[in-house]
Design a protein that fits this description.
The chain is globular, with a radius of gyration of 25 Å. It is α/β, with parallel strands linked by helices. 45% of the residues lie in helices and 16% in strands.
């Protein structure tokens, strides 16, 4: 762990580096570009080759999709507890989604024209569910579940398969329950390319959703324009900002839970209480031996974890806004003062009794959130992102007459006399 106090010579330099932007690495950018080109040129053949290369699985073009038999076997194998957990999570997801879906509206403008918007679901979307060391069942629910709530009729899920070509049965069950209509056994940048560009077997989608590693994020970035994307959710992050009211054991547990993701995860803790920082460090050391993924956690503690002793809590707010964490845990005795000052964060968890894990699995909001500083420009996944926005305009003679002087003036300024004529002609009959 990197531990810095505000009095340390290296403190300010480290804090400045926390003000980051989601900029791709050159090596990642080039490799992803090559993968996209292969998928564009060779389609299913490229997917088979790349899946063998990156996942060690031998597939054929006809076996890219999860079959009905595989789905039936998965449904049969999952436990009653898993079924209940999936059901309860989806119930909260759909309730939350229903509040964030946009509704059609209309009004009269100053000239009497009727203007408004209508919202319709995308016809076909892709959701990406990362593979790796754990089946991210919750991610399946918090992507496909929102798509289903928005009324999307075609939901194709992409997730990496194991070397034997299988997909975790709990993940398959969750995807089915969440509303996935197709499931393809492809991961990584090649999956994003297939969803965006299409192949012989995979029809392209209108928009792509879901988190992934830096290669998945870069593929989404490069394919914007060929397809719409949700946001840039990459390796997981947490920043816990606490004053002396923070519970050290709770804080340590949340930090370790985030480190459990492994890989490029970022784990941060900042406090203006030196005593609390010391107690958190002690609690981390006590809790790590109790966890099954201790080796993975220790690697993240070594490479991706920082702890800061702040000069003031106000400085912590400034650091948080610059860092723009995926998850911000805000623990303070003066929440009413400090919460309004938080401007950039994917999701905010308030108080000692709000673990990120509950948000990840059950609370209702999607845990698909911007990372790497992208939260300055992107918000977390919402149900309304699965809707198209279409504006509506209706005029009659009265509103045309009222609008004509302004239209003609703009037409004169811009040298577009046909625009003015297209409006005035409607008053000549």
């Amino acid at each position: 762990m990197k531990i810095f106090s505000h009095s340390d010579p290296a403190y300010q330099a480290f804090v400045r580096r926390l003000n980051r932007r989601a900029i791709p690495e050159a090596g990642v950018r080039d490799l992803v570009g090559e993968i996209i080109a292969q998928v564009a040129a060779k389609g299913d053949e490229a997917l088979v080759t790349l899946t063998k290369r990156f996942d060690g699985a031998t597939l054929k073009p006809k076996s890219l999709f999860v079959t009905e038999a595989e789905m039936a076997a998965a449904e049969k194998s999952v436990s009653r507890a898993t079924r209940s957990a999936v059901s309860r999570s989806l119930k909260n997801i759909h309730a939350f989604a229903n509040h964030s879906l946009r509704k059609d509206w209309s009004m009269k403008n100053a000239e009497g024209a009727t203007v408004g918007e209508r919202f319709t679901p995308f016809d076909r979307v892709g959701v990406y569910v990362p593979g790796g060391k754990a089946p991210l069942v919750s991610t399946a629910l918090m992507t496909a579940g929102f798509a289903k709530a928005a009324g999307v009729p075609q939901i194709i899920a992409a997730t990496p398969c194991a070397p034997d070509g299988s997909v975790n049965p709990s993940l398959l069950y969750a995807l089915k329950q969440a509303g996935a209509t197709e499931i393809v056994k492809i991961g990584g940048a090649q999956a994003i390319a297939a969803l965006a560009l299409g192949t012989k077997s995979i029809r392209p989608v209108d928009r792509i959703f879901g988190p992934g590693n830096r290669f998945v994020v870069e593929a989404k970035r490069q394919l914007v324009g060929a397809v719409s994307i949700d946001l840039l959710p990459g390796p997981s992050e947490i920043l816990i900002l606490a004053d002396k009211s923070g519970n050290p054991d709770f804080i340590a547990a949340d930090l370790l839970a985030q480190a459990e993701h492994g890989g490029d995860s970022v784990v941060g803790f900042a406090t203006d209480s030196k005593a609390l920082l010391n107690r958190v460090v002690s609690s981390i050391e006590k809790q790590v031996p109790l966890l099954s993924r201790g080796k993975i956690i220790r690697n993240v503690l070594k490479t991706g974890t920082f702890l800061l002793h702040l000069k003031s809590f106000e400085e912590g707010i400034a650091i948080s806004n610059a860092f723009c964490p995926e998850h911000l845990s805000l623990i303070t005795a003066n929440e009413k003062r400090w919460l309004p000052k938080v401007r950039t964060a994917g999701a905010i968890y308030l108080g000692n009794f709000s673990p990120v894990a509950v948000g990840d699995f059950l609370a209702g909001p999607s845990h698909t959130l911007p990372t790497g500083g992208a939260g300055r420009s992107f918000s977390g996944l919402r149900a309304d992102q699965f809707q198209r926005r279409t504006s509506i305009v209706r005029l009659d003679k009265k509103s045309i007459k009222a609008s004509l002087p302004v239209v003609e003036e703009f037409a004169r300024i811009e040298g577009l006399d046909a625009h003015g004529r297209s409006t005035s002609i409607r008053l000549e009959s």
